[in-house]
Amino acid sequence: MKMWKKAASIALVSALTVSMAACGNGGGSDKGSADADTFKIGGIGPTTGDAAIYGTAVQNGIQLAIDEINEAGGINGYQIEFKFEDDQSDSEKSVNAYNTLKDWGMQMLVGTTTSTPCTAVVEETHADNMFQLTPSATAVESIQYDNAFRMCFSDPDQGKASADYISENNLAKKIAVIYNSSDTYSSGVYQKFAERAKTLGLDIVAAEAFTADSKTDFSVQLQKAKDAGAELVFLPIYYQEASLILAQANKMGFAPKWFGCDGMDGLLALDGFDAALAENLMFLTPFTADAEDEATQKFVSDFEAAFKGTPNQFAADAYDCVYVIKEAAEKAELTPDMSVSDMSDALKKAMTEIKVDRMTGKSITWSEDGEPTKDPTVVIVQGGVYKILHAE
Predict the structure, then answer these.
(1) What is the third-level CATH fold of 38-152+292-374?
(2) Between 24 and 34, whose confidence is greater?
(3) Would you say the pTM of this structure is higher than 0.90?
């Protein structure tokens, strides 16, 4: 609008031309660029702050996949450009990051990395009808619109799968839960777990909450779990809090079985954490770097060579996201000159028609609600490393 006012003396035709060009730079453009010769994929996640391990892994996983695909000829013969923005796992910063990427010319979004920012950004991608595939945002609301899909399990799916696994493998009858009631991820997993546990006849003898303001001292929650005779403690939380819980339980002589979800990934890499405290901890995850299949080992080797570190599940999910986009884009016969909205419509249809085998799942399909169908894997910590315990 400012440009139009400044150009008030220019002929109407010229003004309209400028206006259309400016609109074409936005994510919600109805028209593509006739001279576009690359696909532009954006990514969003925390590369600084408390959750930086997740966003950095996602950024690196995307970059590795794009480098491989470009070297092999790209998507439908076109190369991919990639730009990643840090959101510090903050909703407002995430929306700002999205707008920055729109200004850059983003056509598809891999992100965001964490659930609450993703829930904010999906409002923007929906308004623009931009295709969005999140590698790791697990909240149901994070993909509540038809333009958004996810690679990982949702919170309810993780809660259900965890209860099923505990029941099917007779791990315990008396279960305590320690969860973060102020966190969408943690409370979402817990609610579905509790619902499923009741159906399966599992007895939740203690369900103890904490909040973001009280996540350093867990003595009260642990004592209640111990006094209730819990044989297993379910931890639908992130690894930072889990490390404190394991240490505090050890000091008080409480040694139940421990079971968690994908937020546990990163525990063994935490600075100063004694891996012995996590011995025999089990958790649900789509990926472990110790898997022996050829695809995983090649990915781990290439990732370590490129980024000097072992990939976690966030890196693997992000890597798989790009290959899924490639598969869907080829199914839809996308070209870079299509509008963002036309790309999104084509990809939405293609996503429900493809079936892929990736590191984070075999024979993965997607329904129109954006949820993936794939089998869960459970790993156990033994000898300071993750080992696949069971793959259904």
Answers:
(1) Rossmann fold (3.40.50)
(2) 34
(3) no
